[in-house]
Prior knowledge:
The protein is an all-alpha fold and about 230 residues long. The chain is about 75% helix and about 0% strand.
Amino acid sequence: xxxxxxxxxxxxxxxxxxxxxxxxxxxxxxxxxxxxxxxxxxxxxxxxxxxxxxxxxxxxxxxxxxxxxxxxxxxxxxxxxxxxxxxxxxxxxxxxxxxxxxxxxxxxxxxxxxxxxxxxxxxxxxxxxxxxxxxxxxxxxxxxxxxxxxxxxxxxxxxxxxxxxxxxxxxxxxxxxxxxxxxxxxxxxxxxxxxxxxxxxxxxxxxxxxxxxxxxxxxxxxxxxxxxx
Length: 229
């Protein structure tokens, strides 16, 4: 057995895949390189806990890091590519953790503020405090389902109904609507702004005969309707 054969035997699957990618940086070679480190990637993923990112998101991030690491890696680093790549991946996940935590705090405030807005708006909209707790929610839901379609976009309305009227979490809504959790939280934020302007900007009464709730026109009512379209 000559020295070249020994050297080839010492090479890992990752080393061979990296060489192939360097010689021909095509998509298939990059996938082969990524697959060689897939078990290590999963180990790193298991070390982290995210609120707004699922495993598919983290795998996509790992693919991007793998590509960038392959582009920047040099043998003069005096470390194997696998070690370099995994360290880059850990650094990336650490950065995402900080952003994820900040997003969670912002989104929790959005959830709370929207729910508090609707609770505070019940007395102003209905004009009384019912002795029957269920009737307030029913009447509020009836009002919102009639007025919200005018104020909200179709997507905002779907998110609003799922979150407020059906009590789904943002993650569940994102999965049902096939969007990111961030898109759901952004929609809830827009719902809050529009409904806050609606509740605080006009006078309301709720007829005892169960007729449709009526809002007296406010000076900027036309602008509100235009902005929601």
